[in-house]
Amino acid sequence: MELEIHDVSKTYANGVQALKAVNLTIGKGMFGLLGPNGAGKSSIMRTIATLQTPDSGEIRFDGQNIFANPTEFRRQLGYLPQDFGVYANASATDMLDYFARLKGIRNAKERKNRIDELLDLVNLTEHCHKAVDTYSGGMRQRFGIAQVLLTNPKVIIVDEPTAGLDPAERNRFYSILHQLTDSAIVILSTHIVGDVTNLCGDMGILNRGAILARGKPDELVASIERQIWHKSVSRDELRQLRLAHKVISTRIVKGEIQATIQSDTAPATNFTQSAADLEDFYFSYVPELAV
Ligand code: ADP
Fold first, then answer.
1. SS3 content of the chain, % helix, strand, coil (to 5)
2. Rounded to the nearest whole angstrom, what is the distance from the C-alpha of residue 111 to the centroid of ligand 1?
3. Which of 18, 34, 64, 187 is the most buried (most CB within 10 A)?
4. What's the pTM value of the predicted model, to 2 decimals?
5. Is the shortest distance between the CB of 41 and ligand 1 below 6 Å?
6. What contacts 197, CB < 8 A, 6 or more positions away?
């Protein structure tokens, strides 16, 4: 099972070049597409979902160009966009039944079994008769996953699914997504580094329409091991530090500014070296805005 994205570029009618020759080969399991807002994540997701065509380049699933027969590809695709509509007052069971009919599951018993199984998978059995538009953000996302899974898709695309979820809802959502990775290609777009750390065996960093880094999270982190240094600084010191060093991020720790610097050698004697993590790797490619 393989999805190959070759040199995909897209410029919108307003002149924004959202994708610049994107190349990615994605296999079974969970792939994290990490990037800041405006990086082009939704653009690549919508393109894979065949909702828009690239200006140039190609996307192949198991060797077949997905745009040659989009209807056929869509049968194998599950797409959970950032905002998906729900019908006022309809319960989860009723909506899933409606979508299952649309997707051609004609046998009522088969539909009921599949819907019961999916509601159980996403932990919504208890709430299945409540109107979906009264659900919390996390319940809605879980409902969205149930809907996407109705037809056992081989390629599952989830666009920024954890934005707006509280930590408990996010964890519950992670554990559901995690169960899908044995049987499908799951592509998860997010601006939250923790989503990728917790879930993805493979990842890419997208910024300004281009893939900046690609690989397994562990290996990417290993590539900057021993290069991460911390120091608490004043605002003036931080300004000086930026002139001489690669300050990749800053955060407030116990009321002080802690600067993180990437350097092969100690920037000065009073810096503390620390273990690199995926956030450091991300910020080494997508620098944080200066505070
Ligand atoms: P992300 O999902 O990473 O936030 P998007 O793919 O939504 O990024 O957007 C990438 C860039 O393309 C942004 O500059 C955005 O404003 C622009 N963009 C996205 N969709 C459209 C569109 N339909 N028409 C014009 N510009 C768009």
1. 35, 30, 35
2. 37
3. 34
4. 0.92
5. yes
6. 217, 277, 278
Alpha carbon nearest to ligand 1 atom 7, residue: 42
In which order are the strands placed within the sheet that holds 2-11? 17-27, 2-11, 56-61, 64-65
The length of the chain in residues reads 291
Give the ligand 1 atom nearest the CA of 36.
3
Beta bridge partners, 30, equal 186
How far apart are the CA of 240 and the centre of ligand 1, in A?
35
Tokens of 57: 């380049």
Q: Give per-residue pLDDT as tens, 82-108.
A: 877 777 789 999 999 999 998 888 999
Domain 2-216 = CATH 1.10.10.10: no
For the stretch 46-58, pLDDT in tens is 999 999 999 999 9
Structure tokens at 35: 């990037």
- pLDDT tens string 184-201: 999 999 999 999 998 999
C-beta 16 within 6 A of ligand 1: yes
